[in-house]
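>> received
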Amino acid sequence: MANSLHHPRLPILQFLLLLFSSISPRLHASEPYLTLDYYAKTCPTAFEIVRKEMECAVLSDPRNAALIVRLHFHDCFVQGCDGSVLLDDTIDLQGEKKASINSNALKGFRIIDRIKNKIESDCPGIVSCADILTIAARDAVILVGGPYWDVPVGRKDSKTASYALADSNLPSADEGLLSIISKFHYQGLSATDMVALSGAHTIGMARCVNYRKRIYGDYRVTSGINPLSETHLSVLKSICPPIGSDYNETAMDYETPNLFDNSFYQILLQGEGLLNSDQEMYSSIFGIQTKELVNKYAHDALAFFQQFSDSMVKMGNITNPESFVNGEVRKNCRFVNT
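>> returned
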C-alpha cells in the first residue's frame, strides 16, 4: 500500500476509472429467478430451521457468524451464488476449497451440513445448499448485532466448481484498491457495495500470512506514531512474527470483534486497518469515493447497516444462469447428486 500513498498524476486515475466503468460484468447482480416466497408451500419451515441452527452455532462460538458470511462471499464471487464453494474434491471434480485463497481460510462447512440434514428431514430434495448458505449468512449477521434484510430464494446448486476462478475472482489481502474495485465491478457490484460489504470484517479474523506485510510495512505510515497505535502494533507483531506462525489469527476489528457494528470503519480512520486491502479504502490516493464512504459509515452506523443490507441482497442475487438450466438441489452439500 505504500506505493499508493504517493501522488500519481490525476489523468492516470481518470483513465483507470474510465477503463473500469467500461468493463462489462460477467455476472449481473439481479434476481430474475428469485422470490421471497419460493419455499412458502414446498418447505415452509426452511427459514426457521436455518435460524435455529445458526442460533446454536453462534451461541457456541460467536466467531461462527463470520465463518458463514465469508463462505457466502467466497461462493458468490465464483460462478455466482450456486453453492460451488461447498463441494469437496472427488475423482471427477476439483472443488474450490484447496484454491490458494481458500486453503486453510474457509471454515463453517459442518454448520451448513447440519442445517442441510435438518431441512432434508423436513423437506427432502427441496431447498438448495446455495439458498441455505445465503439465508444462514443473513442470520449470522443478525445474531451478532447486525441488520435484518429479506432473502430472495430459489437458487439451484451447481454441478461444477472452479478452482481457477476462486484464485482469480476473489480479492486478496494485499491487493490494491483499483484491482479490488474492478473485481467487484466484474460481479456487477459497485465501489459503494465494496466498501459496505468490507464492513463484514468487523466480525472477521485474519491470519498472520495475510497481514504480515502490512504490519512490517506501512502500518506506521497510516496510523502515525502514537502510544496507542504503537502498543497495538507491538501486540500484532507478537502474534505475527516476521517468519513463521502463518496461521496465527487476530481480529480485524480489535475493539468489538464479536459485535457487528461500524467500529471497523473507525479503525480505518485511525489508519490501523489490519489488512492492506481494507486500509486502502481510506488511505489510497485512488480512494476519493471510498474514503468518503469509510468516513460516512464510521460516523453513521444506520447508514452502514442500510447499505450493507442492500449490498448483501445484491451480492446474493448474483446468479449462475447455468445452474438454473443444469443445476440441482443437492442431497449432500459436499457432493453432486449421483
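>> The longest strand covers residues 205-207.
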